[in-house]
Structures are given as C-alpha cells and as structure tokens.
Amino acid sequence: MYQKIILASGSPRRRALLSRLGINFQYVTSTIEEKLNPDKDIVDEVIRLATMKAYDVARIYDEAFIIGADTVVVCEGKVLGKPLTKENAVKMLKFLSGKKHQVITGVAVINKNAKFIKQFHDITDVYFKNLNDDLIEWYIENDEPFDKAGAYGIQGMGCLLVEKIEGSYENVVGLPVSKLFDVFKEIGISPYRGL
C-alpha cells in the first residue's frame, strides 16, 4: 500500500539518513521555532518540539505520514543548542572537552486524517577527547559547528573530536532510523517484502 511520507525538516543530515531506508519521501521545512522550556523535562521537550514540527507541516499535508524530529545535546544538566557565534561555538566545545554528554532526539510520526500519532526518543552517550585550543580553532574555521546542536557534527570533521559513543550513531546525526523503521513496520511501510 502506497503511503505518502514527508520529513518535516530541512536538515540534509536527516534527509540522508532517511534515504538509507530506501523509502520514497518528500521533505518540507517546518516553521516552528525551536524553543525549549528550561523548566520542563528535556525528553518531554524534544518530543513536544518534534510533534509541533510534524503538525506544522500536516496543516498542508493532512493525508501524509509526517515525521518531525528535534535533537539536543545535554552535558552536566546543561542543554546546548546551535551556536550563534564563533565565541558561542568555542565556549560549547571547551565545555564538552574531555566529558561525556548525551545526544537526545525526540521523534513524532503523525497522520492527521488517520488520527495516528507515535512519539518516541533516543539517547546516545558521546565521549569527547580532551580538545586543545588549536584543534577547536581549526574545527570552527571550517564552519561545521554553526547549524548543529552542541557545535559539532559527528558525521563530518567533528568525528575527530569524539573518543567513543554508546548507543545509536544515527541518533547523534539527528534521526534514530532504527526506531523509526519500527514505526514504519507498524503502519505497513517497508522497503523490503518481508512485511
């Protein structure tokens, strides 16, 4: 059965991850402001934002299955979003240096017409190497940190900052596709004939 799939994200990293599943999809960037409430549980907040992004796109595409996602980096109880300036990025990377942090992604899959909603999250522990000033400066000069939570992208040159991870690599990139695939199976979407 054909189902229309729309990723409510303009992120090229999320698009690349979803493409790996071999499922046809479109993408539409959500206009929702990514603003977290610091007084609320962070897992609840990333799921809330993911759901808002999905419903934002579903206003136009109410017959499709919409995937919304939101990713944050949390270290020592502090939530790190996307750095706005070079100084922001330096500060974040120095803060993460030599420490373990969590990458948390909330995901919502909805279909307004079918009254379907499935929400979940994934958490990956990431351990950073001890970063010296020269490495941080070099990394920031490559402009990689500026559209990524925590000021790094593990799928790019940011992999050089990481000692090890525990959990899903794809979650760190921004979309836990293994868990998403389980939702697809539930709604009868599969790139292979085993379902």
UniProtKB/TrEMBL annotation:
<keyword id="KW-0378">Hydrolase</keyword>
<dbReference type="GO" id="GO:0036221">
    <property type="term" value="F:UTP diphosphatase activity"/>
</dbReference>
<dbReference type="Pfam" id="PF02545">
    <property type="entry name" value="Maf"/>
</dbReference>
<feature type="site" description="Important for substrate specificity">
    <location>
        <position position="155"/>
    </location>
</feature>
<comment type="function">
    <text>Nucleoside triphosphate pyrophosphatase that hydrolyzes 7-methyl-GTP (m(7)GTP). May have a dual role in cell division arrest and in preventing the incorporation of modified nucleotides into cellular nucleic acids.</text>
</comment>
<feature type="active site" description="Proton acceptor">
    <location>
        <position position="70"/>
    </location>
</feature>
<dbReference type="GO" id="GO:0009117">
    <property type="term" value="P:nucleotide metabolic process"/>
</dbReference>
<dbReference type="GO" id="GO:0036218">
    <property type="term" value="F:dTTP diphosphatase activity"/>
</dbReference>
<feature type="site" description="Important for substrate specificity">
    <location>
        <position position="13"/>
    </location>
</feature>
<comment type="similarity">
    <text>Belongs to the Maf family. YceF subfamily.</text>
</comment>
<dbReference type="GO" id="GO:0005737">
    <property type="term" value="C:cytoplasm"/>
</dbReference>
<keyword id="KW-0963">Cytoplasm</keyword>
<comment type="function">
    <text>Nucleoside triphosphate pyrophosphatase that hydrolyzes dTTP and UTP. May have a dual role in cell division arrest and in preventing the incorporation of modified nucleotides into cellular nucleic acids.</text>
</comment>
<dbReference type="InterPro" id="IPR003697">
    <property type="entry name" value="Maf-like"/>
</dbReference>
<dbReference type="InterPro" id="IPR029001">
    <property type="entry name" value="ITPase-like_fam"/>
</dbReference>
<comment type="similarity">
    <text>Belongs to the Maf family. YhdE subfamily.</text>
</comment>
<feature type="site" description="Important for substrate specificity">
    <location>
        <position position="71"/>
    </location>
</feature>
<keyword id="KW-0546">Nucleotide metabolism</keyword>
<protein>
    <recommendedName>
        <fullName>dTTP/UTP pyrophosphatase</fullName>
        <ecNumber>3.6.1.9</ecNumber>
    </recommendedName>
</protein>
